[in-house]
Amino acid sequence: MNFLKLLPVFFCGLGLAACGEAQQEVLSETSTPVSINTDVVQLTVLPRLYAAPGSVVSDETIHIASRATGFIQQITVREGDRVKSGALLAQIDQSDLEGAIKQAEAALKAAETEMEDAARDLARIEELAASGAVATETVRKARVRRSLAQSRKVEATAARDTAHAQLRYTRITSPVDGVVVERHAEPGSLATPGKPLLVIVSDRAVLFETFIPEKLVAHVRIGDRAFIRIDSLSITLEGVVVRVVPAGDPVTRRFLVKIAFNEQSGLLSGMFGRATFQTGEDQSHVVPPGAIVVRGGLRGVFEIDDANIARFRWLHTGRESSDWIEVQSGLMGGERIAVSGLDALRDGLPVTPVTGDGK
């Protein structure tokens, strides 16, 4: 009984479907053709790209330390301060070194006096030896005394010069133009050789540092071009790969890559960005961006068949540029597609191609 009640509904549905097909046929036959431009779906070679996040880093990070031992009198900079080459960074107390210089100069004076005395004695003894008044052994000892005095003078001179050099090291200056990023000491603390006081990042050269996976390291070579998007500056800069470190991280299996910027204006160490490399090429079908139509949130194009009827085709798209959009599925290549008048097109509508492939 229920089945019999559903039969009219079933036949009514068939009638509506047939009516819809008839309407579409009428639409194709009686609608005024829309004039459009067409293009042919082409197979082309596209770059295979890989984007890797990274950071702007300084190629010169300098750890400033004292070569002299002494208490720090002053440190003239703090984190974030910009410094010029030769600018005073810190001053070490000179009292101990000034005392060492005076001591070295006194020792040098004594050595010079001793050498002069030894030289006079040697000259007198050699004169007496010539007349046979003194023994040969006495002459030998006089010569040894003069040699020892000369050695002590050389030693005292070196001690004096070293003390003067150490005095120069108490004034610590910046070796480069840059920015202070770390400060490890305060006035009154003891500076010792090798202990970092400050860290300066040089302005002379900044690089972009990123990591690439193991499977791509063979495709990235020194000299390759790359494009770096710096989010904070809203700019994309061109660069060149200058280093590919051949030792990868044993845990992540990633390899360090450094890129030199062609333009460094406004870049600061620590800025985040993304580098895009070309790691190969693929053959893919492409369509112009102007041919894409969005229906129900999905992308597609209007294919023009041999009868010049527009048929909507859903697409699965991939990579994009300002000139093309990659088609991963939905087209086989060689199809004619509409590239103008898209707002007026409907599925099944007749068209009149005015330019394009000539069909």
Ordered list of secondary-structure elements with their pairings:
Blueprint: H1 2-30, E1 34-40, E2 42-58, E3 61-65, E4 70-75, E5 82-83, E6 88-92, H2 95-130, H3 136-169, E7 171-173, E8 178-183, E9 190-191, E10 196-202, E11 206-213, E12 225-230, E13 235-244, E14 254-261, E15 272-287, E16 293-295, E17 298-304, E18 310-314, E19 316-320, E20 325-329, E21 336-338, E22 351-355
Parallel strand pairs: 1-22
Antiparallel strand pairs: 1-21, 2-11, 2-15, 3-10, 4-6, 4-9, 5-8, 6-7, 8-10, 11-14, 12-13, 12-15, 13-14, 15-20, 16-17, 17-18, 17-21, 19-20
Q: What is the residue-mean pLDDT, rounded to a whole number?
A: 84
Spell the H/E element sequence: HEEEEEEHHEEEEEEEEEEEEEEEE
Total count of strands: 22
Q: Which CATH top level class of the domain at 50-59 and 203-281 fits?
A: Mainly Beta
> What structural class do helix, strand and pairing data support?
alpha+beta
Termini gap: 58 Å
- Amount of beta strand: 35-45%
- The CATH homologous superfamily of the domain at 50-59 and 203-281 is called Efflux pump adaptor protein, beta barrel domain
CATH architecture type of the domain at 50-59 and 203-281:
Beta Barrel
Question: Globular, elongated, flat, extended or rod-shaped: what is the shape?
Answer: rod-shaped
User: Helix coverage percent of residues?
Assistant: 25-40%
Number of helices: 3
